[in-house]
Automatic annotation (TrEMBL):
Residue ranges with Low complexity bias: 246-262, 288-312
Biased composition (Basic residues): 263-287, 330-344
Region feature (Disordered): 246-344
GO terms of molecular function: nucleotide binding; succinate-CoA ligase (ADP-forming) activity; succinate-CoA ligase (GDP-forming) activity
Domain CoA-binding per the UniProt entry, residue ranges: 4-104
Name recorded for this polypeptide: Succinyl-CoA ligase [ADP-forming] subunit alpha
GO BP annotations, alphabetical order: tricarboxylic acid cycle
Signal peptide span: none
Pfam families: CoA_binding, Ligase_CoA
CC per GO annotation: cytosol; succinate-CoA ligase complex (ADP-forming)
Species of origin: Clavibacter michiganensis subsp. michiganensis
Length: 344
C-alpha cells in the first residue's frame, strides 16, 4: 500500500503542451504512471503523442475528469497563471493536485490554499515548488526520477527536492514505500504532519525519514506530533546550520518587533528625471588646468602632477594635486578644472 496515490491513480497534466509538461509527462509514462490527458484551454480538442501514447487535450479540469476519470492533477503552469490553474482544479474537486511550479507569489499560494479550505478540503494540495510524489513501481506524479530507488518499507517526506533524490538513492537497498516532496515555500498545502499521519496509517510503511530545512518552526511542530502520535521509528534531518535572526522564512511585516529592531538601510536617491538628484551637474575634471582657456600662464606653469606610485602605475589616469589658479578665474571655470584653489 502507498499513500496519496497508487497504481490505479489516473493523472492529468495541466500545462501538458508546454516544454516542462511534455518532458515530465514522458518520464511519468516511462515509469508506469497512468497519464490520461492534459489541460490547455487554448488547445482543447487536440492531441499530443508522448512515449507512444496519444493524449487528449481538454479545455478544463472538470471536462478532463468527466472524460477520463482522472483523480490526480500535476500542474506545470507558469507562475503568473498557476493560481488560476490550482483554483480550477479545486473547483473541479479533484482529489489530489500536485503543484510543481516554482516562483508562485506567496499571496497567490495563500489565496488558493484558503480557497481549498473554504470548499471543504475536497482537494489535497501538494506544493507548490515541490518535486511531487512517487510510489516506486506503482505511480509517479511529478518530477522525481523513478530509476534511483526501489519499492520498500521506508516512507520519506522532505522539504528539499534535491535531498529527496539523495535520500532515495542512499536508501535504494531498503526501498521506499512513498516519497513526498512537500516543497519549501512559506505556504504549502501538505505539511510534515500531514505526511506523518498518512505514513503512520500505512501498514506497508515500517519506518519514516523526515527531512527539513532551516527557517520556520514546521520541524519543531512535527517533533511534537511525533512524540504524541507516531509509533513507528522516525529519523529526521534538518539541513543547514543557521538562519538569519528574526527571519524564520520571510521578511517580517513593518509593524513586527523583528522589523523594528532591524537597522534600516539608507534610501538611494531617485533616478527619475524630475527628481532633484537626477539634475545634470557640471562634470568634474581631474586632468590639467590647460582644459580651461581662462588660466593664466603662471597658473599653467605652477600646475604639476604627483609622481606615480607603484599602486597608481597601472592606472590609466594619474591623480592631480591641487593646482594654483589665477584668483581672477570665474568660479564656474574652477569647478570644471577639478580640485583647484586660488594661488597665494
Amino acid at each position: 500500500m502507498s499513500i496519496l496515490l497508487d497504481e490505479n491513480s489516473r493523472i492529468i497534466v495541466q500545462g501538458l503542451t508546454g516544454s516542462e509538461g511534455t518532458k515530465h509527462a514522458g518520464r511519468m509514462l516511462a515509469s508506469g504512471s497512468k497519464v490520461v490527458g492534459g489541460v490547455n484551454p487554448r488547445k482543447a480538442g487536440s492531441t499530443v503523442t508522448i512515449e507512444g501514447v496519444e493524449l487528449p487535450i481538454f479545455g478544463s479540469v472538470a471536462e478532463a475528469m468527466t472524460e477520463t476519470g482522472a483523480d490526480v492533477s500535476v500542474i506545470f503552469v507558469p507562475p503568473a497563471f498557476a493560481k488560476s490553474a490550482v483554483v480550477e482544479a479545486i473547483d473541479a474537486a479533484i482529489p489530489l493536485a500536485v503543484v510543481i511550479t516554482e516562483g508562485i507569489p506567496v499571496k497567490d499560494s495563500a489565496e488558493f490554499w484558503s480557497h481549498a479550505k473554504s470548499t471543504g478540503g475536497k482537494t489535497r494540495i501538494v506544493g507548490p515548488n515541490c518535486p511531487g510524489i512517487i510510489s516506486p513501481g506503482k505511480s509517479n506524479a511529478g518530477i522525481i526520477p523513478a530509476t534511483i530507488t526501489e519499492a520498500g518499507p521506508i516512507g520519506l517526506v522532505s522539504k528539499s527536492g534535491t535531498l529527496t533524490y539523495q535520500m532515495m538513492f542512499e536508501l535504494r537497498d531498503l526501498g521506499i514505500s512513498t516519497a513526498i516532496g512537500i516543497g519549501g515555500d512559506p505556504i504549502i498545502g501538505t505539511t510534515h504532519i500531514d505526511a506523518l499521519e498518512a505514513f503512520e496509517a500505512d501498514p506497508e510503511t515500517r519506518a519514516i525519514v523526515m527531512i527539513g530545512e532551516i527557517g520556520g518552526d514546521a520541524e519543531e511542530r512535527a517533533a511534537e506530533y511525533i512524540k504524541a502520535h507516531v509509533t513507528k521509528p522516525v529519523v529526521a534531518y534538518v539541513a543547514g546550520f543557521t538562519a538569519p535572526r528574526a527571519r524564520p522564512w520571510a521578511t517580517p511585516a513593518p509593524s513586527s518587533p523583528a522589523a523594528a529592531a532591524r537597522p534600516r538601510a539608507r534610501r538611494r536617491p531617485s533616478r527619475h528625471p524630475a527628481s532633484r538628484s537626477a539634475r545634470r551637474r557640471p562634470r568634474r575634471r581631474t586632468s590639467s588646468a590647460r582644459s580651461s582657456p581662462r588660466c593664466s600662464d603662471d597658473a599653467l606653469a605652477s600646475a604639476r602632477r604627483r609622481p606615480a606610485s607603484p599602486v597608481d602605475a597601472g592606472r590609466r589616469r594619474a591623480r592631480v594635486l591641487p593646482m594654483r589658479i589665477d584668483p581672477r578665474m570665474p568660479r564656474r571655470a574652477r569647478r570644471r578644472t577639478g580640485r583647484a584653489r586660488p594661488g597665494r
